[in-house]
What we know:
Helix content is 59%, strand content 1%. By secondary structure, the chain is an all-alpha fold. The chain folds into 3 domains: 15-140, Four Helix Bundle (Hemerythrin (Met), subunit A); 149-195; 227-302, Arc Repressor Mutant, subunit A (Orthogonal Bundle). It has a two-stranded antiparallel ribbon with strand order 1-2. Helix 2 (50-63) packs antiparallel against helix 3 (66-75) and helix 12 packs across helix 13 (283-302). Residues 72-141 are annotated as: Sigma-70 factor domain-2. Residues 272-291 bind DNA. It comes from Noviluteimonas caseinilytica. Its main location: cytoplasm.
Amino acid sequence: xxxxxxxxxxxxxxxxxxxxxxxxxxxxxxxxxxxxxxxxxxxxxxxxxxxxxxxxxxxxxxxxxxxxxxxxxxxxxxxxxxxxxxxxxxxxxxxxxxxxxxxxxxxxxxxxxxxxxxxxxxxxxxxxxxxxxxxxxxxxxxxxxxxxxxxxxxxxxxxxxxxxxxxxxxxxxxxxxxxxxxxxxxxxxxxxxxxxxxxxxxxxxxxxxxxxxxxxxxxxxxxxxxxxxxxxxxxxxxxxxxxxxxxxxxxxxxxxxxxxxxxxxxxxxxxxxxxxxxxxxxxxxxxxxxxxxxxxxxxxxxx
Length: 303
């Protein structure tokens, strides 16, 4: 697996494809483009059936077939994007998270055992998240600790202004605030920031639970849903939404307005007669337009 030339995604405006080597007959992202183009391209790569996944995994495990490994990686790149979107609240570039997740995906493919009886996505999600968690933890401390002139003054002078180790008492805080011409609140806030320290995300395996508080991982909400089912459901919902948008785009303006107001706006669903009065036709004519529009859209979903 180490021979696979799957490059990392650039974190800034220029995004190079991570797929210079691919399995036969698989669509690939363009060699150079935006992150949106990359995400759109990986969603064009077909999802494997359970049988196809088993066959490819066995080929890689038994014969070290790199084409099979590439096929497994490429078909799951969309899942890495799906997981990365769940970490948007950390203020990090989604391209960076996808890049780290792709590394986790390749590690998972290398270690996947097809005889266990689980889908690759259920196994890979732990490796993908582990790489993303490590990246987040390494970058979480890179924050702006001094954004104003007063805070910058505090940042560079607070340590030498302290007369002893440990937290300052009220009198010391007052003296430092007066000396540096800042508020006492700003002194306390900066002291808190500078006294912070990094802690492990996971507690060591041999740590006694009575020796200290739980590691941060203990505070994460448990997700009992099988990752493969959650991914398939989310992907199906995204696909149906795209089909709905495409279907509405094929309708004329009046048909589109009728469908939206009759079916897609739960807060103000109008009646056939109300639309008939608005368009100056009979309620039966509105019903016919609605039926024809729904027929066109159903044909798109059934294709």
